[in-house]
Design brief:
Helix content: 25-40%
Largest sheet: 6 strands, parallel
Number of strands: 12
Number of helices: 22
Structural class: alpha/beta
Shape: globular
Radius of gyration: 26 Å
Oligomer: single chain
Length: 536
């Protein structure tokens, strides 16, 4: 007669056989952590999914890789202990599960949410946060929204629908609760925001100088009201990055949370910062300057001090400067050129944005920044390769500006390779399906791309965004095939655009026309849009 014995919680059936090398390594790792850091070991035992995932990594990657990552995983005990539920809760908007993929573009965090939560917490208004990006269903969100007084949403145009659903669930669970909204979509399309009945308060414009009063006493504000911003970014506090959502599972310690994994523009982990707010140009597909008041740029020393502080705490691998336009205001750039290599803990490689006309205007300054400050990934919104299409977009640049910049970056990259250095490369934004674009315009765009020796492409079909001049025109003329949908992407979006032509273009049907006038080396260069929006 056999008896089924119930296992004790700590029983390890592998003891019945000689341990394998993996089992010996696993036991040694557990013993080391339990001996050297009992507090950390108690936290891990209370959150056993971490232990399971670490053992999986040990099996898949080996002891060396696990020890390298595990050494940086030292969570604050307080964040894993039960805590009092705040009456205020933020919902971090996005696609479900985006923060479960180590290489997802959505791994970047929301600086607006981080800044406003930091301001609230400094004033004693402690808030909670739940993220769509760390879960796969609304059920998890629903559990977190119950028994709250105020829901706060930072709404971008491409997050309107999840914001609407979050507000609906919140109101269902908390009929007397208040939904407070703001963000870019509230600023560029307040009418659409007002049509969502669950949005009780709508802040138009910046919120850093209004968020505390708004959350403390929402009834003192009308439904729609203007925000109040700081005069200068120097007035902003440094973001408490531990207030950002925590990626699930081992992603948290692999990327040295609260730093970010980035998109492999440079070594991980990545520190993302802002040095300026608002692009001063007025492109017809964007034109953010018409809606966001310009403000003073952050002092160079403040940016460097914050990066050094992040490095001291978590170890910075590279930097992403998330400005809409970094390469502007030459005096500021010259100060950055002088101080960053001298004062930063390390001259970290960084990603930052420029325009082809400003590069052409200040080429010597641009080249010195690339070489002396390790600006190794230059993001330029070329968008289109023909003067006609550029005029439609009101880019205020020319084909010659684009060609000059491409030639300059190609030449600098060649020189760096000869010197044994990693060459500078482009991160290039490209737009197809522009209303009014002709086949020859599209041929010129692909021809322009082929001239880039080192580039990663971020391509998408034109989408009509509210708040932009061209977007307003397309929407007013009834040509928007996806009204209310503001997500950049693929598929047919604008009435009158021949998308079959673009499919044929991308599949090589018009290579002969595209290659006209190109030398043999340039012709042979493959245009790889990868997993960008035109193919997603």
């Amino acid at each position: 007669m056999s008896v089924n014995k119930k296992s004790t919680p700590n029983q390890d059936h592998s003891d019945q056989l000689p341990p394998t090398a993996l089992q010996r390594q696993w036991r040694a790792l557990r013993k080391s952590v339990a001996t050297k850091n009992p507090h950390l070991w108690s936290i891990l035992r209370a959150n056993r999914h971490f232990l399971h995932e670490i053992r999986q990594d040990l099996s898949n990657q080996g002891i060396g890789q696990v020890l390298g990552s595990f050494g940086n995983f030292v969570p604050n005990a307080a964040e894993l202990l039960p805590k009092k539920r705040s009456p205020y809760i933020w919902v971090d908007l996005g696609e479900f599960g985006e923060l479960t993929s180590f290489d997802s573009e959505a791994c970047f965090q929301d600086h607006g949410v981080g800044l406003l939560r930091t301001i609230m917490h400094k004033e004693g208004l402690i808030s909670d946060l739940v993220s769509l990006r760390t879960t796969n269903s609304w059920d998890t969100i629903r559990k977190q929204l119950k028994n709250r007084k105020i829901l706060i949403l930072n709404v971008r145009s491409y997050h309107v629908e999840p914001a609407r659903e979050a507000a609906r669930i919140f109101k269902e669970l908390n009929p007397d609760g208040v939904v407070v909204t703001g963000g870019m979509h509230a600023t560029v399309s307040p009418t659409e925001m007002q049509e969502i009945k669950e949005f009780d308060k709508i802040c138009i414009g910046p919120g850093e100088n209004v968020i505390v009063d708004l959350v403390s006493n929402p009834d003192s504000f009308p439904r729609v009201f203007p925000g109040k911003g700081a005069a200068s970014m120097a007035d902003w506090p440094w973001i408490d990055r531990t207030l950002w959502p925590k990626p699930v599972g081992l992603l948290k310690y692999k990327m040295n949370w609260p730093l970010e994994p980035g998109l492999r523009w440079g070594p991980r982990p990545v520190a993302t910062v802002l040095t300026s707010r608002v692009c001063p140009w007025q492109c017809s597909f964007c034109n953010e300057m018409s809606y966001i008041k310009n403000m003073g740029r952050r002092p160079v020393d403040d940016v460097i001090d914050e990066l050094n502080d992040l490095d001291d705490k978590w170890g910075v691998g590279s930097v992403v400067i998330h400005d809409s336009m970094f390469f502007q205001k030459p005096n500021w750039l010259k100060e950055w050129l002088e101080k960053y290599p001298k004062r930063a803990n390390k001259t970290w490689p960084y990603w930052a944005a420029a325009r082809s006309d400003t590069v052409r205007e200040w080429p010597e300054l641009f080249e010195r920044l690339v070489r002396e400050t390790n600006w190794n990934s230059v993001s330029i919104g070329f968008e289109a390769g023909s003067d006609r299409a550029l005029r439609i977009l009101n880019k205020q640049v020319t084909e010659e500006d684009n060609a000059f910049t491409i030639d300059l970056v190609n030449r600098i990259g060649d020189d760096m390779e000869r010197e044994g250095l990693k060459p500078v490369s482009f991160w290039s934004n490209i737009m197809l399906g522009i209303p009014g674009e002709r086949p020859e315009d599209a041929f010129k765009t692909i021809r322009m791309i082929k001239r880039m020796k080192r580039a990663r492409l971020s391509a998408a079909y034109y989408a009509a965004y509210p708040g932009a001049a061209l977007g307003h025109q397309i929407i007013a003329e009834g040509k928007n095939l996806k009204p209310g949908e503001h997500q950049r992407g693929d598929g047919q979006r604008i009435k009158g655009v021949d998308y079959d032509f673009y499919d044929d273009l991308l599949n090589g049907k018009y290579d002969q026309q595209v290659n006209e006038g190109l030398d043999l080396e340039t012709r042979s260069r493959v245009v790889d849009f990868g997993e960008t929006a035109v193919y997603s």
